[in-house]
Amino acid sequence: MTQNRNILELLAPAKNAEFGIEAVNHGADAVYIGGPAFGARANAGNPVADIERLTRHAHRFNARVLVALNTILKDEELEEARQLVWQVYEAGADALIVQDMGLLELDLPPIQLHASTQADTRTLEKARFLEDAGFSQIVLARELALEQIRNIAANTTATLEFFVHGALCVSYSGLCNISHAQTGRSANRGDCSQACRLPYSLADQNGRIIAADKHLLSIKDNDQSDNLLALIDAGISSFKIEGRLKDLSYVKNITAYYRQRLDEIIEGLPHQRRSSSGCSSFLFTPQPEKTFNRGSTDYFLNERKADIGAFESPKFVGEKIGQVIRLGRSSFDINSELALHNGDGIAWFDDGNTLVGLRINVAEATASGYRLSPTLSDGKLPAGLRMGTTIYRNHDQEFERLLEKKSARRHIPVRLRFVETPDGFALHMTDDEGVSAVAELPHAREAAQNPEQALASLRENLGKLGTTIYSAEAIDLAIASAWFVPASALNALRRAAVEALDAARIAAYKRPEHRIPLEPPAPYPEDALSYLGNVFNAKARAFYQKHGVSVIEPAYECHQEKGDVSLMITKHCLRYSFNLCPKQVKGLRPDPMILINGNEKLTLRFDCKPCEMHVVGKLRKNRTIPLTIR
Fold first, then answer.
1. Contact (Cβ atoms closer than 8 angstroms) between residue 142 and residue 167
2. What is the Cα–Cα distance from 168 to 241, expressed in whole angstroms?
3. Which of 85, 121, 220, 434 has the most beta carbons within 10 angstroms of its beta carbon?
4. Strand-pair partners of 166
């Protein structure tokens, strides 16, 4: 089954059904959402009824709903997971996003399978295996370069998905066990503690401090907006926005922004088209810099870059708005040329290089900028605010207010044709994909006294589609004469035609096909799996055995690895960040280094051939009872 890579999909996140509906309204061709359980985001579960409500809305625009069931599962959870898959399938879900291969050994409905980012697909061999095992869509690792993507696309047929915006996990997805090792909260089970966003000090093997109290594992946010055309050329056809835990303004703003960018590209590429129907109009100007971000990077897409870290803060610093030019007791002036508003959030770095934030109560324009009176607990400005301090805005109150309201409308262009019938009139409606419907109006034909006015009235009343999802692209009055038809009759005819077209579009919608796995089963690219294979249940073990894997270690969550192991494997290299890379400086060796956070010490080991850094450590002693795979 060859996928059509000329059909492009914008894939947006949905924390819940409301967010998903707004993502569709703001231009998403597909949305991904967690179900009631096992969705890799512990705080983003949704009842099946909400999944059904979202699919009803999405399918009106031929948009897809993908349900994330991408944690690794205990044996005793497999039956619940199986039942859940059936429930979301019956609710209309189009695809299932999967990490745990044990699910493929269950009695599942014919739902399309997508390989999660947690499946860690970095090689052509892994991508080929996944499509041979029954996956129709595969999200590639965010660390890949364009040429690697191009090679995978040239030698596979599955739809290839790539993250284009949002937070970046510093580790290869699916290979991070630091959260579980330190807190018992497993990232592979959807409960990451985000140890990568903590402050650390970096020391060499002799204990010399290289950097102190920096967020050394914190990465800037992904932004591939300038690389979309290159990604299309390389073979990516699904463009994924990260953020199932992000707020609604993020979903609206970022989805609208990428919708506009992709539409501009599609307009110049006649052989490409979007995967869903209709078009969105926006009541605001999308501005991604206004929404939570840690700075931007295109990561490794165009090879390694020096400045990918968000070492100063894992928080949203915001846009630079000016510097302090006057300090008062409870207010201060800045030389900003940007429009500031009451309610804006501002931030700056204090003397200890810690990000400090305040909410502005009153922003008053002055000759040189603005006088800002922030909300203060004790009536005094913070001591760390000084003359010359650079001020940032990380909450634009006016922009957020725009997004709190209705901020987009999505509509389907239709052509209307009003014709005569033996006993009256009929209205034909045809959408931009050729789906048609007709409604008839038995009515006596009576010549209008004012033909010009009658024809104008016909057009006006037939074209009143504002409360529907349709907009009239053309209205053809294919009648022999100007007839008088009461507005009430025309309104009823139009409503009947809209209902008929709604029904025709629903009937025409087809869920994506399920890919049949190869028989006999395709061999897995390796004959042995370490704890990094995340095999957590007997069905997963059976899956890999069926595909030729002879040595299968249990997942790290089974607590079999008691000594030092790689808790995180990442392309981010701190030796490179601090100009200590042997490839940069001749004579240097890739000796281990130490990350320090309080009493916690982690060893950094460097594998220079693939250009990877391993964060090495062990389970803390306060662990729960080990699990075993039966």
1. no
2. 11
3. 121
4. 222
Q: Residue 42: its pLDDT value, please?
A: 67
The DSSP output letter for 447 is B
Helix (H/G/I), strand (E/B), else coil: 20:
helix
Residue 347 sits in the same domain as residue 370: yes
Asked if residue 330 is part of any domain, the answer here is yes
Query: 514 in helix, strand or coil?
Result: coil
95 and 200 in a single domain? The answer is no
Q: Is residue 107 part of a domain?
A: yes
CA distance 465 to 459: 12
Distance CA 141, CA 117 (A): 6
What 3-state DSSP class applies to 201? strand
Q: What residue type is assigned to position 596 of the chain?
A: I
How far apart are alpha carbons 462 and 448 in whole angstroms? 17
User: 369: left (phi > 0), else alpha (psi -120 to 50), else beta?
Assistant: left
| The one-letter amino acid at 393 | R
* Helix count and strand count (H, E) for the chain: 13, 30
- For residue 308, being part of any structural domain is answered with no
Q: What is the pLDDT of residues 57-116, one digit of tens each?
A: 999 999 999 999 999 999 999 999 999 999 999 999 999 999 999 999 999 999 999 999
Query: Token digits for 250?
Result: 């993020």
Domain range spanning residue 258? 7-168+220-282+284-290
Query: 364 forms bridges with which residues in the sheet?
Result: 371
Kindly indicate the confidence band of residue 275, based on its pLDDT and cuts at 50, 70 and 90.
very high
One domain, residues 190 and 327: no
Backbone torsions φ then ψ of 320, nearest 5 degrees: -70, 130
- Tell me how far apart the alpha carbons of residues 148 and 146 are, in angstroms, rounded to a whole number: 5
Helix 248-267 crosses helix 17-25 at what angle (to 10 degrees)?
30
pLDDT at 431 over 70: yes
Cα-Cα-Cα-Cα dihedral of 164, 165, 166, 168, to 10°? 30
Q: What is the DSSP string of 112-154?
A: EEEE-GGG---SHHHHHHHHHTTEEEEEPPTT--HHHHHHHHH
Q: What is the pLDDT of residue 622?
A: 58
Q: Does the pLDDT of residue 629 top 80, yes or no?
A: no
**Residue 18: burial class (beta carbons within 10 Å; 0-12, 13-18, 19+):** middle
C-alpha closest to that of 228 among 218, 238, 219:
238
Query: What CA–CA distance (Å, rounded) separates 1 from 158?
Result: 8
Composition of the chain by helix, strand, coil, percent to 5 = 25, 30, 45
Tens digits of per-residue pLDDT, 552-597?
Answer: 999 999 977 668 999 999 999 999 999 999 988 988 999 999 999 9
Instruction: Judge if 109 and 240 occupy the same domain.
Output: yes
What are 298's two structure tokens? 């295109």
Whether the predicted pLDDT of 45 surpasses 90: no
- The two tokens of residue 112 are 């399309």
Q: Does residue 457 lie in a domain region? A: yes
CATH of residue 33 = 3.20.20.70
The domain tally of the chain equals: 4
Paired strand residues for 616? 566, 603
